[in-house]
Amino acid sequence: MLESITTIGVIGAGTMGSGIAQVAAQAGYTVRLYDIADDVLQRAVERILHFVNRAAQKGRLDPELARTVPERLHPTTDLHAFADCQVVIEAAPERLDLKQRLFADLESIVAPDAILATNTSTLSVTQIAAATQTPHRVAGMHFFNPAPLMRLVEIVAGAQTAPHVCETLAALAERMGKTPVHAKDVPGFIVNRVARPFYLEGLRLLETGVADHATIDRLIREGGGFKMGPFELMDLIGLDINFAASQSVYNAYFGEPRYRPSLLQQRMVESGRLGRKTGRGWYDYEEDA
Ligand SMILES: NC(=O)c1ccc[n+]([C@@H]2O[C@H](COP(=O)([O-])OP(=O)(O)OC[C@H]3O[C@@H](n4cnc5c(N)ncnc54)[C@H](O)[C@@H]3O)[C@@H](O)[C@H]2O)c1
């Protein structure tokens, strides 16, 4: 199946979708990138080409390959353009109803043997697949942020996913230079399950006035040897996405107190301070936004 893949559809041109589109184009695939608005797509393509050129300048990407990326990228606001995609990777916002609707729509557009993958961090792959008539071809393909740099990809089988679908996605991840790991369809899979208390304990320390967010980040980096503290990481991920993931894991584990989201997260989202992507989150990025 891997050899028959030439064209990959990516849904959502935000933080993850644009990164995944970049990775796929750099691996030599034709990429169709869907979003709901032209200006979002335009910004995404500019961002991708900027990163591709930078990677080529720094010697991390073959300049010949970098030159071919623009002709491989096909932005669109019409999902019907995905008709020739053998694989679709969905990276739309972390909302079950939205993802279910997209998968149901896709089913009537792509070929019957096309693979439908979701980049969800915490939602049930089984539940997303249940919105289709062909749940055997739906699986999770969970990239990490930033997708062009992070090697790990979790491959997640839903309750009805056919084994060959996960095998093909794992082989595709390898073709993209990634390290695939098979994970079970449990809320948060492996990495987001382990990482959830990282953010939430940081928020609880802040809520109870133990330390401010910059101090917590600095201690975790300097004392703990982590690359980023929880607040810096939330800004990179996007506070809206991180909050949605917190809610999703909390609800999926029947209100398990360990995973209780924080009101502070909610306030930040309500005030539109979503992190790097909006120029402001826990920190100010106005200059490089
Ligand atoms: N941000 C992270 O660190 C991260 C890491 C791994 C996985 N994920 C997952 O990836 C998915 C996307 O997250 P993100 O951070 O890229 O979000 P984002 O907010 O940066 O991007 C989402 C994109 O989806 C578009 N969109 C909105 N409604 C849509 C619709 N109806 N159909 C198609 N596109 C629509 C938006 O315009 C936006 O461009 C989520 O499921 C999230 O859980 C995020």
Automatic annotation (TrEMBL):
The record marks H142 as: Important for catalytic activity. GO terms for biological process: fatty acid beta-oxidation. Signal peptide: none annotated. Residues 7-186 form the 3-hydroxyacyl-CoA dehydrogenase NAD binding domain. Residues 188-285 form the 3-hydroxyacyl-CoA dehydrogenase C-terminal domain. SUPFAM superfamilies: 6-phosphogluconate dehydrogenase C-terminal domain-like (SSF48179), NAD(P)-binding Rossmann-fold domains (SSF51735). InterPro entries: 3-OHacyl-CoA_DH, 3-OHacyl-CoA_DH_CS, 3-OHacyl-CoA_DH_NAD-bd, 3HC_DH_C, 6-PGluconate_DH-like_C_sf, NAD(P)-bd_dom_sf. Keywords: NAD, Oxidoreductase. The keyword Transmembrane helix does not apply. The keyword Transferase does not apply. NAD(+) binds at G12, A13, G14, T15, M16, G17, D35, E94, K99, S121, N145, K277. GO terms for molecular function: 3-hydroxybutyryl-CoA dehydrogenase activity; NAD+ binding. Its EC number is 1.1.1.157. Pathway: Lipid metabolism; butanoate metabolism. Coiled coil: none annotated. Belongs to the 3-hydroxyacyl-CoA dehydrogenase family. This is 3-hydroxybutyryl-CoA dehydrogenase. It comes from Ardenticatena maritima.
